């Protein structure tokens, strides 16, 4: 179906967070501790705007809107609204509203709260632009903006070294993946001639039919895997927990870390359902799922436990997307929705515990149920969804994904067993986060624990209850959200029918019971399991996180050594390098293509032409045999004078006069500079060095000669000459064409050249005016010698 064109309101919705970022600091100063309420209206209104698309996209409609951005390059600021982008836009704006409110309570009294709000809105706008982006280049720009804005948020507490390191690590990893994605988009545009995603999706096989599918696939995965923290790029995501908790909750629930998953889902109709796709994605996704959950079990920090399960959940989503099985894709969409809700809520719970009790260490928490009853209830509801228990949306997602993996004709058994193991470990973490801080004996905490204010508890409660409501309204959820999103992944309209409870005893139900039983057993052995995993990791020692530091250290070290190698501080070395590469640039293409110009026949010179040639050769010999540098400079002017005579001989007196002036000034200026530089009067280089420079000089001369011959042997295009001859009089009112060209047609170029000459002259003047300070050591030695001679005379 051809997308319908809509008005610019959706474009304004994407830009609204950027406008809010501008005014957020001022509003924070005006409203002081209540700024979160008016600021939250921006994402709330965006959420309401996108709710208007729910009905149409559920019926299979799609929409586009565009404004010219860089039309000469085919780049538009355009949006594409379908089921997938609508779901992401609702999550980004809806959860974003709760995050703004939560940040108002969490950052209350912080001196830089206004700046924090500004960064959050920039991040929100970048994510909206990414998921709604239709033009590939504008999509890439928003993709990189998410990396930049997340860098600002992760490194918000910039006085702490850990925050700076985490921010830099996230920027380098995701930024490097962004460059890979840019290369993929350039290949797509080159191979297909299309730059709009909506057009590409209209021809699903357009990329597969080209010979560039493999490099495009690899580059897209490079962007997606780094952004969504797939193994072995998973290490940056837990380190990003150095950011304030509102950032962590937003980053892990609905925004940046899911950008890679969004990209894979968006590109599924174009790249999916191939042997490569169904092999690589399930493999890396499955490994990431297991690595993430095992590392989560090892942690005792609430935020780190949740962060590693986010890595695991992203791996599960990639694994399911990689199957290209419709039921597994349905499970991926459901789990994407469920994860956004329960993970955002649990991160807010962890932040509230830290804010009110003063610690996030689960081994130092206990008995908070009576002090924080609302937070405890929200934690339990969100954890039940994370554990995949009824009656929550997480349970339905688990049932559907098991149905999809079990029935997958590929490596269905391996994928299913991986999902069971990963989900069981997620149940362990969900129980640990929701139960251990609140149950058991009351533990003394650094701060007197009490229930958080409404701004801190509103988010977890709303998200937890939303997960419950969506499950209770499973049929509506399937029709309005899951079905349209699944249609975007499959490329055709798909009807989805969901049920809260299984209609019969089947394989997915049995797998769910196994998952729950295994999770409960592992939870009872959590401390022993944590110690075992810690021992294994300690035995392994090295990991990707440490490898990142070694890589950065190696790059910095190599850069230093390479800089010392090429930046020697010697002008002679720099000039040799420049001329070597100049020779390569002018000689290598002709050698590789075999297109050197033919040597022209020797013309019949007149006696005065032979005289000019003799003067040029004489000047060359004078330069070569000169004993001093000053003599060589003066002799070099002979070459320029010979060229000036050639210009005059061919009827160009203006150019000839200019050449005479330039050569005269050059010799004078160089001679003046030579008198002020601390240089040896003559060149005392050894024979090997002189031979090297001679070879380089001959190579450059030969290359430039061949280039000039190649140019002169081409047919002369007179269009520019004819233009100047025709319009010099009528437009510029001048008879001297050369003067008209310099002053009128190339007036700004001439002004620039004059400016360069003036700057060079000022530099020369400054150099000439420098007075060399006498060496005090030499002066003292001379004084001592004079005094000694006087003594001997006496």
Automatic annotation (TrEMBL):
**Superkingdom of origin:** Bacteria
Is-annotated flag, keyword Membrane? Answer: yes
- From the Swiss-Prot or TrEMBL record, state where the protein is found: Cell membrane; Membrane
Instruction: Give the bilayer topology.
Output: Multi-pass membrane protein
Write the record's keywords in alphabetical order, separated by commas: Antiport, Cell membrane, Ion transport, Membrane, Transmembrane, Transmembrane helix, Transport
Enumerate the spans annotated as MrpA C-terminal/MbhD domain: 615-677
**Span of domain NADH:quinone oxidoreductase/Mrp antiporter transmembrane:** 134-416
State where it is primarily located: membrane
Q: Name one GO molecular function term.
A: antiporter activity
| InterPro entries linked | CPA3_Na-H_Antiporter_A, MrpA_C/MbhD, MrpA_C/MbhE, ND/Mrp_TM, Proton_antipo_N
Listed GO biological process terms:
monoatomic ion transport
Residues in NADH-Ubiquinone oxidoreductase (complex I) chain 5 N-terminal domain copies: 72-117
Q: Name one GO cellular component term.
A: plasma membrane
| Residue ranges constituting the MrpA C-terminal/MbhE domain according to the UniProt record | 695-776
For this UniProt entry, which segments traverse the membrane? Answer: 12-31, 38-57, 77-104, 116-133, 168-192, 212-237, 274-297, 304-321, 333-353, 374-396, 408-433, 454-474, 505-523, 573-592, 607-626, 633-651, 657-677, 689-711, 750-768
NCBIfam families named in the record: PRK12647.1
Write the protein's name: Multicomponent Na+:H+ antiporter subunit A
Instruction: Identify the species of origin.
Output: Roseibium marinum
